[in-house]
Amino acid sequence: MTVLNDDGYRVLYYESKLERCCATIMDASPAILRIHEQVAFGWLDRGAARTHYFDFVVTKKSGGRAALIVKPEKRAHKPAFLKEVREISEQAVQIGVVEEVFVYTDESFSDVQLRNAELIRSVREVDIEADRVVADLIKGLQGNVRIQELVAASRLEARGFRAVVRQIGTGSLEYDEGVSISRSLEVAKSRECNT
């Protein structure tokens, strides 16, 4: 289980290490508003009523919903599994339960993405002063800048670093998600903040 902070604290349960990794990455994503686990979906299998439990259904900040089926890579390519997923996906999308269904495997993310997500989740506790100072610095940001430069300009050292990471977590700062978040990482003001 893990604790989420979406509309107040709540516990999210998972059944495997892979589901924990998926939940961690989804929870750290600025595009995801809410995550629900083990969501039941009734579907027809050659006319017979069956129930599938999506491992996660995420609500995006854009308003759409997506279902995730979490499976180890070695099991995700079996013909019977793929056929069932295709039928479930078509029915779920057709009736409007979700807009899309994804199979999420251990190949769907990198160790760097997982470490970044864990870092983002670890610094979520609000620091009003540091968050305000860093948000003000971002307003005037032009082009790329290293995190260390923002931290130095904030004059808040570790608090400043955590505030910058929180801004990454909210989507106010963009970065190359294939690179570990560190003081040497280059970030830029999100295109959404520029509009």
Automatic annotation (TrEMBL):
Organism name: Tritonibacter litoralis
Protein name as it appears in the record: TnsA endonuclease N-terminal domain-containing protein
